[in-house]
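Incident log, support desk, overnight shift.

02:14 A customer reports that sequence design results differ from what the structure should imply. Their input is reproduced verbatim below. On-call engineer (initials T.W.) acknowledged and began investigating.
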């Protein structure tokens, strides 16, 4: 066999030292950490932890839908409506009404955006790596949740936009949405079997996404040891299962009539007949009645002053 020539040695050295991808101009510290795969995984894990905290607290707050109407200051109100008003009143008067809630929402939107960008960037980095070292995928080493992370993430992202348009912004037509009426908005929306099915399917995919995300989060943060793998799996299974049972229960409970809305609670002057929920006409009539009552009280006060 012929000995390698100097030209061949030079070619092999250049080939080995050639970078797989062009180096990007480094950003200032600590932004340069995000240019690395490890940094992106840390960002994905940290933002995922923030989003998990929101999902758990959001589900816990929604459990107030089961409580129904309670007495507050001598009048009947839905506990979910009181909770919604409490969220809008956080840190008032330090912040104006509802401002701190929107600051929290903007923080969650930023975390959601960074979570998506880090996932997309890691996928691009993985795809642009040297294909010569790639091997055939071994699906025996990956469960269904990990194989569907990308598609479940896309569907959950679309579901979040629909959920905001449905119950936060009231953009979905035909749901009789009214600002501040949390109980009636939820019942009106989830009484539609198609909408309820969307919520059930989306929250099932969310639970699958969270199961693998929580399990991988420990590894991304450096907490990976065979002694702790069973604990990681139990935590991931427990949290994902809890979120799945809680979120899926809401549309099922509305369809089963467990979570309901009574017009008499919203309109104390109603006859007490239980309806699916307050309609647009009833709501407009209620607002008109309130305005008339206010003008009548003013007229009575003026008459008493004249007398």
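02:41 Re-run completed on a clean worker. Output:
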């Amino acid at each position: 066999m012929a000995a390698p020539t100097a030209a061949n040695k030079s070619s092999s050295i250049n080939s080995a030292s050639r970078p797989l991808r062009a180096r990007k101009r480094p950003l200032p510290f600590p932004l340069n950490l995000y240019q690395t795969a490890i940094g992106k995984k840390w960002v994905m894990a940290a933002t995922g932890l923030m989003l998990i905290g929101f999902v758990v607290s959001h589900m816990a707050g929604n459990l107030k839908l089961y409580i129904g109407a309670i007495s507050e200051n001598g009048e009947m109100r839905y506990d979910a409506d009181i909770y919604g008003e409490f969220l809008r009143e956080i840190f008032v008067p330090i912040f104006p009404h509802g401002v701190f809630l929107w600051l929290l929402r903007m923080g969650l939107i930023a975390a959601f955006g960074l979570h998506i960008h880090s996932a997309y960037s890691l996928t691009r980095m993985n795809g642009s790596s040297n294909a010569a070292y790639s091997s055939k995928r071994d699906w025996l080493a990956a469960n269904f949740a990990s194989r569907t992370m990308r598609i479940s993430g896309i569907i959950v992202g679309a579901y979040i936009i629909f959920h905001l348009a449905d119950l936060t912004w009231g953009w979905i037509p035909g749901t009789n949405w009214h600002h501040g009426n949390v109980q009636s908005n939820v019942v009106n929306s989830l009484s539609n079997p198609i909408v309820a099915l969307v919520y059930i399917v989306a929250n099932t995919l969310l639970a699958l996404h969270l199961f693998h995300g929580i399990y991988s989060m420990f590894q991304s943060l450096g907490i990976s040891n065979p002694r702790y793998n069973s604990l990681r799996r139990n935590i991931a299974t427990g949290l994902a299962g809890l979120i799945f049972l809680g979120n899926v229960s809401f549309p099922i409970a509305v369809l089963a009539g467990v979570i309901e809305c009574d017009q008499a609670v919203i309109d104390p002057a109603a006859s007490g007949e239980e309806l699916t929920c307050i309609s647009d006409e009833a709501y407009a009539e209620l607002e008109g009645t309130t305005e008339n009552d206010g003008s009548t009280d003013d007229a009575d006060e003026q008459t008493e002053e004249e007398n």
